[in-house]
Amino acid sequence: MHSRLATTPTYLTAAMFVAIAALCPLAVPISSAAAQATGKSRAAVESDANRWADSVLTTMTLRDRAAQMVWPNIYADYVPADAKSWRKVTSYVADQKVGGILMSIGSPIEMAVKLNALQRMSALPLLVGADLETGAGMRARGGYFVPNGIDLGGATVFPSEMAYGAANDTALTYTEGRVTAIEGRALGIHIDFSPVLDVNNNPANPVINTRSYGEDPHEVARLGVSFIHGLQDNGMIATAKHFPGHGDTETNSHLALPIVNVSRARLDTVELVPFRAAIKAGVGAVMTFHGSMPALDSSGAPGTLSSNVVTGLLRNELGFNGLVISDAMDMKGVTDKYGSTEAIKRAVAAGVDVLIQPLDVPAAIDAVVAGVSEGRYSETRVSEAARRILAMKRKLNLDRNRFANLDSLRTTVGDSAHLALAQQAANRSITVVRDSSHILPLKLSTNTKVLSVTVARRTDLGAGQTFNAELAKLAPATRTEFVMSDDPAVNYPRLAAMADSADVTIVSSYVGQSWNVTSVDAPQAFADWLSSLVARGRKVVVVSFGNPYLLSQIPSTPTYVVGWDGANVSQQSAARVITGLLPASGHLPITIPPVAKRGDGLTITP
Fold this sequence. Notes:
The protein is of the alpha/beta class. It is built from 23 helices and 17 strands. The protein folds into two domains: 2-409, TIM Barrel, CATH 3.20.20.300; 430-578, 3-Layer(aba) Sandwich (Rossmann fold).
């Protein structure tokens, strides 16, 4: 039966068109710029997109429509034409007829070239989505050449969302959205899977952390909406995630099913606030949460697989009519209990339109089709999702031009003006949480003996590079040490001896949301070593470029600075703040229990 459904053309009747139109009004706003570019009003653009989608649907089998919903993950790595990995990807497009692509990491040129090649193979234009939470450079970077450690450059990398929370300026977040859209579209990407609108009100959250704007739902909403406008005003679709909220959990949904066990009243006043604002602002897509909220669905089903959450709350109650995109369908938050095939069917039945990164692409398409034959949902449900996807392609003009312009890419992606905007945001974000010993700004000279200890994962080749280079400009005698955070046998006594002979020891942590995937806590030996330096009267500055809650484990630290992430711009700004070349003006958008509250932040002037 499955093969028959996959090969027999299915034509839609007029009655089916009416049913789909009623379910799928496609109220995704088109930016004024896009409407002006076509010379049409927004309403006319919407109407045109729907007509085009309807005409395409009449030519598609049920399996073709199901394939529009399934988007595999690909890398922008170089591969020869006869490589197994390339043949697999091209089969997804040419044979399986997928509707879109989830773009992962690679260099800008290779990314654009590969996407152009796949677009040429596809009968219909592909929609391309990517996680660009910190700009196009989050995915489109050349990496580092080993063993020389040469940064191969790439698209612009902005500071983390929480850095923007610390700067608390909607003009900055709008600008980030604008530049991300310009660079992303130049690369061939159409949908940004951001902003993260999770309210990070749980310091132990191992997966969101600095990806969120902060712990205040109204500030998250305000900053998120400005980013959405910046993105969508410039031709890229924004995605509010992870609906209904991934902030108050201590479980990584990549590894297990998180449970947010709070009341509906709490959800209304905290978690749902940013999503309501985003929907009101016209966000084009929403990504679902692979976690359970018993207040919304007593069955314990994760939000992605819950019709109460997707159809009942998001569609019916909040009135969202754009694309509903699942989080990655290979994550254990949905696969552990249900298995990959059953999770696909449940997601479609719940109301999800786009299924990203399934474990098996052909099997995922087959599962969508099988759900119809099994009576799990109607054929109209699949057509409704395909119609939304197709109409989005038309509204983005992909049916007329689906290719990245390789000749102009270099004049757009990673442009120096864009980098300057990222640097401006980083400058505004650096937050001095504490300086009880009054040593900031540091007075460095050619004779100052600085020990700079970088703590990072062994794979983080950029950690400390820019920061230490900035220190060395003022203190050429700066001595650097690299501590691997995943090393269980760090020689802390040796580091302590080195600190004893230094005028100042700067310890910079680049470990992000978690030190060991499941916990945000640093190793006790690391915390004890820092505490011992302070106890012995050593001059110590701790800079967090990763988890800002680190201070909770080292509360005796007299000088604590938050740089928010390890981007080059953030490293440069932090170094210049602590050495007095820049003022410190950031304020905490979170509480660091029990030592600092939201809004804390010292104003340090050069």
